[in-house]
Design goal:
alpha/beta; seven-stranded mixed beta sheet; 12 strands
Length: about 190
């Protein structure tokens, strides 16, 4: 086990309908790198993973959203899927949680449809990022510069398109978390409101 992320605490924000591999693989890799990883959710109990459109495994929720703050963690990971980011972007506490990471300059790593949450949090304007290709218009409409690349890093914001990009996504996620806070991240965070 590598200790590159020793003493780092990482939140994975998820609810039912996340793409299982986009939570599971980063979680294992972050733990292997020495991080303490917690699945944070608006609901207690378990969250349902998906393998595309088929139900996957249930994962235990470590902490509920109402019991944590961004200050409890060093970084945030947002897995994709369809239902997961759609539900989270409609959940005020989840959007505020994501925004708080940006305001603190802490790395945020989002894959697939998860940039929907970044859009709702007002964190996309003026940034270069990628996502599942079907939501590139959403990124453009929010003022972001969408590019078709396996992984994009913009001042502590790591984005990837799909499960096939996980190797690059995980490598950049670990790199950005190990670097710590990024002042450019906080500059893009709009005030709450």
């Amino acid at each position: 086990m590598s200790a590159i992320l020793e003493n780092k605490r990482v939140a994975i924000l998820a609810t039912d309908g996340f793409e299982q591999v986009e939570l599971e693989e980063p979680m294992h890799a972050l733990k292997q790198a020495g991080a303490t990883v917690s699945i944070v959710s608006p609901k207690a109990g378990t969250v349902q993973g998906m393998n595309h459109l088929e139900k996957g495994d249930n994962f235990n929720v470590d902490l509920t959203l109402d019991s944590v703050n961004a200050s409890d963690f060093d970084a945030l990971v947002l897995p994709g899927g369809l239902a997961n980011p759609d539900t989270l972007r409609s959940t005020r506490d989840a959007v505020n949680f994501v925004r708080d990471f940006a305001e603190a300059g802490k790395p945020i790593c989002a894959i697939c449809h998860a940039p929907w949450i970044l859009i709702e949090a007002g964190l996309v304007a003026g940034r270069t990022l990628t996502s599942w290709p079907a939501i590139q218009s959403d990124v453009h409409n929010a003022g972001g510069n969408w590019v078709d690349q396996p992984v994009v890093v913009d001042n502590g914001l790591v984005t990837s398109r799909k499960p096939d990009d996980l190797t690059q996504f995980i490598a950049k996620t670990i790199e950005e978390i190990s670097e710590g806070k990024h002042s450019g991240m906080s500059e893009s965070a709009p005030p709450e409101g």
